[in-house]
Every structure is written in structure tokens, then in C-alpha cells.
């Protein structure tokens, strides 16, 4: 081999070695960004910021930032991640919207099941069925009687098309076979304000948004949407909708972590390993419990099980959304 070829070969080996070293050293001092496809200050944003803090130590002290890109049922922010370089530096925290977007969003610019690497589930957030304080009903049984007497007159609030409260409301109406007038708002805060003020009648929303209002007796609480009663002091006496007669009714607003499709397998493993450590962080668990959320400890923290779970959720929600005929353009 002549000297020129030797120099070229040596340079190529050096570049390959540097590339391998950089990948092995991920994140190597470069900041990681978690994209939240909803506005800052909301439940998903709070989960992402708590997770960002908990991920720093298991990622070797890396800087983990949070960015927000809201709109179109959460698909705008998700699309930014789907189209981002597959190098592990742009991640996505998304909720149940990953399962509803394929049906809910017209002309969705990516494929949920094939354009992301699934890194593991984060938490489950229970839902509560609540009503305006002026309602005479004091139990779920009395509420169903009131609903029967006021068919066609009931306003059901939500935080916007595709929001957790919107989805829970759709499932509830489907379960009791009664249509109500949906009243969408631009976020949970204005919807809750109008519920407290009596401008709307009912809402089904996350414990992250309702626990303090229930505790302060600003709204009436009728049931939780989990299969078992909750241990949270303010909610422990609320029955489940299943025990109240709605067979198989269960809905939680879960969150998961994702990376762009094609992210190298070793980087995926580092991120999944870091996630599993973060989910056991006492401070992270405490913060999630404060939001009324339950940190995932089961097999869904594994990427394959996470993906399998989302596929099952897509199958669950698709017919409900199609029957309702709603879309988030």
C-alpha cells in the first residue's frame, strides 16, 4: 500500500473511531430536548418537566430541556419529533393522544406505529366524573337519574377536541348510550371555571386537574374511571364507574416516551435504561403522586410492551371516535 493510500485508510479509520466513540458517549455533553405537543403548564408538560429532571442523573448529568409545540390534537409537536434527526437528542412525551391521533386527526403527517421508536411508558393518570356544584345529585345513582330526566339538555364540557376530557366524555356517553351537548374550551382552566360557575353541567377530567377542586368542594365528584378505587385521600370514597354499573368502563390518561424512527439501538437502550431508573426516583414518584398520577412499574416500561399497549389503545379508541364523527384539524 503506497503512502497516499495509507493516509486515506488511516483517516477513514480515525473518522469511524471518532463516530463510534461519540455514539458510545451519548449524550456526550450535548443537551437532549423533550418535546411536549401541548401548551406549557398543562398536565403533560408537568409530567415531562418532572421526567426531564429525573433523567439527568442516569444520563450522566446531561442537560434535558423541555420544548412545547401545541396544536392539532398533539400532532404538530409529535410530527416535529418524527421528522427530527434520529440521534437521541430529540424525544417526545405524549399521552393517550398517540392512540387517538390516527383516527382523530385528518391527514396526519406521520404513522404512529412505524415512525417512532417506543422507549417505555411513564405513568397512568386516573379520570374523575365531576359536576357543577348546583347539581342536586349527590351520588352516581342520583346522577344517572338526573341525566335520564334531562336528556337533550345536558352540557358536557371539555378542554378541546382530542383532549383527555373530550375522550373521557365520548367514552362515558357511549357507555350510558346518551348524547350530551359537547362544549369545547381552549384548555382545562376555562372549562373548570365554567363548571364551577354552573355554565356547564358535567366534565370528565384527569385527577391532575380535578383533585384540588374536589377537595375544596368547588365541584361535585361522582366516580373515578379506574378499575379500583383510588388511595388519594380526597378521592378514596369515590366509587368506580365499573362498580356503579358501567361494565368494563376503564380509562386512564397514560404518558409514554418516544424517539424518532431509526434511532440507533444502543442509544435507545441507554434512554430506556435511564427511563427505568428515573421511574424509581423517589422525588419523581412523589411529584407524580402529587399530580394524582401512578408511575408505571409493570412490563410496559419495556419498549416492545409499550408499543403493544399503544396498538391495543388504538383499536379501543378508533371505533368510538369514528362513531362520534369528531376531528381535530
From TrEMBL:
Ribonucleoprotein listed as a keyword: no
Leader sequence segment: 1-24
Domain of life: Bacteria
Keywords tagged on the record: Signal
InterPro entries per record: BUG, Bug_dom1
Database matches in PANTHER family: BLR1237 PROTEIN (PTHR42928:SF5), TRICARBOXYLATE-BINDING PROTEIN (PTHR42928)
Protein family (similarity comment): Belongs to the UPF0065 (bug) family.
Name under which the protein is recorded: Tripartite tricarboxylate transporter substrate binding protein BugD
Amino acid at each position: 500500500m503506497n503512502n497516499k493510500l495509507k493516509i486515506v485508510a488511516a483517516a477513514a479509520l480515525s473518522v469511524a473511531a471518532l463516530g463510534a466513540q461519540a455514539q458510545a458517549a451519548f449524550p456526550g455533553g450535548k443537551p437532549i430536548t423533550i418535546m411536549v405537543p401541548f401548551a406549557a403548564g398543562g398536565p403533560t408538560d408537568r409530567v415531562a418537566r418532572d421526567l426531564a429532571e429525573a433523567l439527568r442523573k442516569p444520563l450522566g448529568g446531561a442537560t434535558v430541556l423541555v420544548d412545547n409545540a401545541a396544536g392539532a390534537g398533539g400532532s404538530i409537536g409529535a410530527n416535529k419529533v418524527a421528522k427530527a434527526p434520529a440521534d437521541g437528542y430529540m424525544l417526545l412525551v405524549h399521552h393517550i393522544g398517540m392512540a387517538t391521533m390516527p383516527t382523530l386527526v385528518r391527514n396526519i403527517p406521520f404513522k404512529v406505529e412505524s415512525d417512532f421508536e417506543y422507549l417505555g411508558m411513564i405513568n397512568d393518570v386516573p379520570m374523575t366524573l365531576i359536576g357543577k356544584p348546583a347539581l342536586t345529585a349527590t351520588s352516581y345513582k342520583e346522577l344517572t337519574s338526573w341525566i335520564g330526566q334531562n336528556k337533550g339538555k345536558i352540557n358536557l364540557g371539555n378542554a378541546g377536541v382530542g383532549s383527555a376530557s373530550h375522550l373521557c366524555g365520548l367514552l362515558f356517553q357511549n357507555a350510558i348510550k346518551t348524547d350530551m351537548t359537547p362544549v369545547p374550551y381552549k384548555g382545562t382552566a376555562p372549562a373548570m371555571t365554567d363548571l364551577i360557575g354552573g355554565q356547564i353541567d358535567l366534565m370528565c377530567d384527569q385527577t391532575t386537574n380535578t383533585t384540588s377542586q374536589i377537595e375544596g368542594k368547588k365541584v361535585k365528584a361522582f366516580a373515578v374511571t379506574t378499575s379500583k378505587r383510588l388511595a388519594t385521600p380526597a378521592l378514596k370514597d369515590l366509587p368506580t364507574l365499573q362498580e356503579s354499573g358501567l361494565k368494563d368502563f376503564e380509562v386512564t390518561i397514560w404518558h409514554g416516551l418516544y424517539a424518532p424512527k431509526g434511532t440507533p439501538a444502543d442509544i435507545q437502550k441507554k434512554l430506556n435504561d435511564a427511563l427505568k431508573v428515573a421511574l424509581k426516583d423517589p422525588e419523581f414518584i412523589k411529584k407524580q403522586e402529587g399530580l394524582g398520577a401512578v408511575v408505571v412499574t409493570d412490563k410496559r416500561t419495556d419498549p416492545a410492551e409499550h408499543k403493544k399497549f399503544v396498538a391495543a389503545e388504538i383499536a379501543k379508541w378508533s371505533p368510538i371516535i369514528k362513531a362520534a364523527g369528531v376531528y381535530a384539524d
